[in-house]
Amino acid sequence: MSERQLLSLESKFTEGNFYDLLQSYKALYFRFSSQKKYKETVNLLVSGTLNFLKYEQYSCAAELAKNLVETYKNFQTPYSNESKVNIVKIFKEFKGEDSRGKVAFMRDAIDWSAKFGSDSKGSPEFHTLLANSLSKEHDFIDAQKHFIFSDSPQDFSLMLKSWSSEADEDEKDLFITRAIFGYLCVKNLKDANTLYQDSLTWLKEPNTPLLNFDRYLLLTLERDALPLFNILRQKYAIALKRDPQFSKYLDQIANVFYKVPVQNSSPFSFLTDILGGLVGGGGNSNSSNNNNNSNSDSMDTDGPTIEEDMLD
Question: What ranges does the record list as Low complexity composition bias (predicted)?
Answer without folding.
Answer: 285-296
